[in-house]
């Protein structure tokens, strides 16, 4: 069955964006960027694929992306209505009207929706974010892939907006980069 993978960039203190959605504090480490572009080219937004030499790159791991409205909105504000045109795009929102024929707005319960998606054939499903959607989808996340950058912000949008519920995880893989960033893959213990 296809997996739901939360693949996300985070600070050392567990934030995926600043309190107002800031993200320019994430350093652009070329070693991590090169590895990720090679291994998950489909996670590069359509607008940046040509300049990254990925214009025609095939989808290697994911063919579907899930976003909360808070994750989709920064692109929308820039006039980009289809940020990952090479993927099937689902945006969860109860307030957004249709924005683009390539983007499906979902009002259903995220857990049930993902359970149905997993029954369909296809590659793995990328949960792009954000913390609110990830918190609700926690029971359906099969793998957590954290790109951890050596930076702290103190407060912001957490990786998960979820109740206090400790859960042991297994580390399925760790990679560290000369720049100080790491990519750690976790599964449920
Ligand atoms: N560092 C990274 O890799 C990374 C990745 C992704 C996102 N981000 C950042 O994270 C921030 C967004 O995260 P967030 O936690 O604030 O928001 P979010 O999870 O992206 O979106 C929250 C919105 O999703 C909709 N939603 C949530 N639950 C729903 C449900 N059950 N049914 C239907 N719609 C539902 C609601 O939209 P409505 O209010 O319209 O109903 C809600 O306001 C942004 O700043 C983004 O840039 C960072």
TrEMBL record:
InterPro entries: DHFR-like_dom_sf, RibDG_C, Riboflavin_Biosynth_HTPR. Signal peptide: none annotated. Residues 3-180 form the Bacterial bifunctional deaminase-reductase C-terminal domain. It comes from the Bacteria. Gene3D superfamilies: Dihydrofolate Reductase, subunit A. PANTHER family: 2,5-DIAMINO-6-RIBOSYLAMINO-4(3H)-PYRIMIDINONE 5'-PHOSPHATE REDUCTASE (PTHR38011:SF11), DIHYDROFOLATE REDUCTASE FAMILY PROTEIN (AFU_ORTHOLOGUE AFUA_8G06820) (PTHR38011). This is Dihydrofolate reductase family protein. It comes from Dactylosporangium fulvum.
């Amino acid at each position: 069955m296809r997996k739901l993978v939360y693949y996300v960039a985070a600070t050392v203190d567990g934030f995926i964006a600043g309190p107002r959605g800031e993200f320019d504090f994430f350093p652009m480490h070329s070693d991590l960027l090169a590895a990720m572009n090679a291994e998950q080219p489909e996670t590069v937004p359509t607008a940046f694929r040509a300049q990254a030499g990925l214009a025609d790159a095939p989808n290697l791991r994911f063919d579907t992306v899930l976003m909360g409205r808070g994750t989709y909105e920064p692109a929308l504000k820039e006039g980009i209505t289809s940020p990952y045109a090479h993927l099937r795009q689902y945006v969860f929102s109860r307030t957004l009207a249709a924005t683009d024929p390539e983007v499906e707005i979902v009002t259903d319960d995220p857990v049930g929706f993902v359970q149905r998606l997993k029954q369909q054939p296809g590659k793995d499903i990328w949960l792009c974010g954000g913390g609110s959607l990830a918190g609700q989808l926690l029971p359906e996340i099969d793998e957590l892939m954290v790109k951890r950058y050596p930076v702290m912000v103190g407060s912001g949008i957490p990786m998960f907006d979820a109740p206090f519920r400790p859960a042991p995880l297994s580390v399925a893989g760790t990679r560290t980069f000369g720049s100080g960033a790491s990519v750690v893959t976790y599964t449920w213990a």
